[in-house]
Amino acid sequence: MPACLPRLLTIATQTAIERVVLDPKYHDLLAIVKGARNGAVYGTKVRFPHALVYVHPFMLATAALICVAAR
Q1: How far apart are CA 42 and CA 47, in angstroms?
Q2: Is this model's pTM higher than 0.70 or not?
Q3: Calpha distance 50→45 (Å, rounded)
């Protein structure tokens, strides 16, 4: 098997993907995929760390209320 064969397969695969991406028939489906991907990235970068930061004050306040109620 020649060494250039994997490169040719990669070029063929890339060409096939570009054809699908540029085909207007798949625009709606690709827009949904893009929106889901962007939402996942936003949730991972912004919302999840924000939730971690804000859960601690409420957790501490809840623990303090439990200690006070237990007395």
Answers
A1: 7
A2: no
A3: 9
